[in-house]
Amino acid sequence: MIELNAWDSDFFGRKIGSARVIASGAEADAMLSEARERGFSYLVIRLTPSDIPAMQMLESRGFYTSDVGTVWQHGLQKTAPPGILARQGTNDDNTIVRQIASGLFRDGRFYRDPFFLREEADRLYNTWAENLLKGDADKFFLIRDEGFIACELSGITGNIVLVGVSAGHQRKGVGTELVLNALAWFKESGAETVTVRTQAVNRGAIALYEANGFRLKGIDITMGRIVERD
Ligand SMILES: CC(C)(COP(=O)(O)OP(=O)(O)OC[C@H]1O[C@@H](n2cnc3c(N)ncnc32)[C@H](O)[C@@H]1OP(=O)(O)O)[C@@H](O)C(=O)NCCC(=O)NCCS
Question: According to the model, what pLDDT value does residue 230 have?
């Protein structure tokens, strides 16, 4: 019933698992027993807004809302050419990327969920950005030392994994230029659609995607449960 989130467990040093959506209280109780037996410290479940009965049942079992996400999609039919050519990030950009990412992703779910410490969330986004630069992303673009965007491509589907512009350079078009570079690269690489997920509270990211031709594709709700020991 519970799948181990190996990367997260390793990173946070606590056993973290994902559970599939369940409907009945009896199933939730069985899942919590399994979590205790297998030594999980935290469980996460991702639902859709139509799963309200399941959410209410999960709340009665100690789950809480950890995140509300929005997924955006671009059809790549119409894309504007970038005005600034972004450069490909290299391992030498490690310090720049860490500086940009530092304290930037405050709308991210790890800052809002009480299971995670603030220092852990800081470390997570810095490490994530660095890993993307060092090869976890299929393409990693930078504009000067001001912003970066990480892209992944699977067949004809592109995904923007992470985009960030350092606080002092925001609202000057850098985010737009990063997105335009990413869209041009996705198109050249044979993608037919590009998706990106961001928190529903992230007004800046939502404004950026809407202004650049993305349309809302879906909403998801993440619920968390801290599993206390008996
Ligand atoms: C989201 C982010 C990358 C946008 O970068 P940016 O360089 O500020 O974006 P731009 O200047 O190109 O702005 C694009 C559009 O969004 C709007 N916008 C940007 N930030 C906004 C905000 N906080 N509130 C409202 N609108 C905003 C701009 O006005 C612009 O709209 P317009 O073209 O109609 O004028 C940047 O705010 C950021 O790094 N945020 C923190 C990290 C983050 O949350 N990343 C996304 C999650 S993966």
Answer: 60
pTM, 2 dp? 0.96
Calculate the dihedral angle through the C-alpha atoms of 171, 174, 179, 183, rounding to the nearest 10 degrees: 140
109/68 Cα distance (integer angstroms): 8
User: If you measure from the C-alpha of residue 176 to the centroid of ligand 1, how many angstroms do you get, rounded to a whole number?
Assistant: 8
Q: What is the pLDDT of residue 21?
A: 86
Judge if the beta carbon of residue 222 lies within 6 A of ligand 1: no
Contact 153, 189 (CB under 8 A): yes
Which residues does 192 contact at the CB level (< 8 Å), separation at least 6? 75, 76, 156, 157
CA distance 173 to 143: 11
Residue holding tokens 């990412």? Answer: 101
pLDDT greater than 70 at residue 93: yes
For domain 73-219, give the CATH superfamily: Gcn5-related N-acetyltransferase (GNAT) (3.40.630.30)
- CATH 3.40.630.30 positions along the chain are 73-219
Which pLDDT value is given to residue 228?
A: 87
Q: Which of 68, 124, 165, 209 to mutate to test the pocket of ligand 1 (most atoms within 8 A of CB)?
A: 165
